[in-house]
Structure to design on (380 residues):
């Protein structure tokens, strides 16, 4: 089936008792057993829930994996991935400006359990190759990165890691499977914060992991049940519902993103623009090869904190908020919001200046978004 058909149907059947078209919210903690040891495969809802299973099967189909596991947040999904695959003494190569919460989990928590992490500029495949040690068991990639939209070559990195038995994990939150499918490029595992584009309506927090190896899936299900950070039935249902429009939403996000990036690129007040869909992006060729669109995350520099404040506080359609990937357009100041926990020297090195502004372009009318930006950039 095609992608849009799968978003609507994969993993879902009409409800067997009523024929309801939509998978019900199985809001139950336990299941009646017909006799001792006689049940339909459902005993307790941490272990099994039909609404959650429908979502897991749906996202697995979209990412072309063999199975999925849904968690209470994107961070819980990443935590479960690491604890499923690694043990004390193992080493992980991580792309350097990875999501702040991922860095915090690795550096402040998992490091204390005997795991080692190296943060490297994964936009250069040879740097990843050089960082691999005898005890490296995982490469954790995010592409494009947040907020400076640096890419890494999933196919090339997978080609060098897989023969060594190193798991390649890609956080695909920014692109969604509509625009980028890491498993088709050779990755073993995809993780998502479903909070962003998959759910797409800024009304649920969740995460999902999709795997390519049935044994890894079994282990991940075991960890999901044992550690217990499951996605609730209602959040599973919301996310399933959100995904039904993923293809049409992403198409519009991408279209609005292209137009706004073009407008910003031509604007005299903007010095630096971070967006992979312009020929001026240093990895434009890779973006075209690896993604089927460029998404709707755009960052630009207006020169100073004071200038940034004028933009951030002056817009009316864009809402000043953290997060991304919803139907509504958001604007944020990475240096003081999403990346405040990153040390200043590191922020500088990554290009996260005081004047940097990040957009998550929504699917409102393009004319309204352009007028909003035009009106505020005039004041600079
Ligand atoms: C938001 C986000 C996460 C964390 O997800 P939560 O649902 O907030 O826990 C991980 N990776 C990326 C790229 C994100 O944007």
């Amino acid at each position: 089936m095609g992608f849009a058909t799968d978003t609507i149907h994969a993993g879902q059947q009409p409800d067997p008792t009523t024929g309801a078209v939509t998978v019900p919210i199985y809001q139950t903690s336990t299941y009646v057993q017909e006799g001792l040891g006689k049940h339909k495969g459902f005993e307790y809802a941490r272990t099994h829930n039909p609404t959650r299973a429908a979502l897991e099967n749906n996202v697995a189909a979209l990412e072309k994996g063999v199975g999925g596991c849904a968690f209470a947040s994107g961070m819980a999904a990443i935590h479960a991935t690491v604890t499923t695959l690694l043990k004390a003494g193992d080493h992980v190569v991580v792309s350097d400006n990875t999501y702040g919460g991922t860095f915090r989990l690795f550096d402040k928590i998992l490091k204390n359990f005997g795991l080692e992490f190296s943060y490297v500029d994964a936009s250069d495949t040879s740097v990843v190759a050089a960082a691999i040690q005898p005890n490296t068991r995982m490469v954790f990639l995010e592409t494009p990165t947040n907020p400076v939209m640096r890419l890494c070559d999933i196919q090339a990195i997978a080609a060098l890691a897989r023969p060594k038995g190193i798991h390649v994990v890609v956080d695909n939150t920014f692109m969604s499977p509509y625009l980028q499918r890491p498993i088709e490029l050779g990755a073993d595992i995809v993780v998502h914060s479903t909070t962003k584009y998959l759910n797409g309506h800024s009304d649920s927090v969740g995460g999902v992991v999709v795997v390519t190896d049935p044994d890894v899936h079994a282990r991940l299900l075991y960890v999901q049940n044992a550690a217990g950070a499951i996605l609730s039935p209602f959040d599973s249902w919301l996310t399933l519902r959100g995904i039904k429009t993923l293809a049409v939403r992403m198409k519009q996000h991408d279209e609005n993103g292209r137009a706004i990036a073009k407008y910003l690129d031509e604007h005299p007040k903007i010095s630096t623009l971070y967006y992979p869909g312009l020929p001026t992006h240093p990895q434009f060729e890779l973006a075209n090869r690896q993604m089927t669109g460029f998404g709707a995350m755009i960052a630009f520099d207006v020169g100073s904190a004071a200038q940034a404040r004028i933009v951030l506080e002056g817009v009316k359609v864009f809402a000043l908020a953290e997060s991304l990937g919803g139907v509504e357009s958001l604007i944020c100041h990475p240096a003081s919001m999403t990346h405040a926990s990153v040390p200043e020297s590191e922020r500088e090195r990554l290009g996260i200046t005081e004047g940097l502004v990040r957009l998550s372009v929504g699917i409102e009318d393009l004319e309204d978004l352009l007028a909003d930006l035009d009106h505020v950039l005039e004041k600079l």
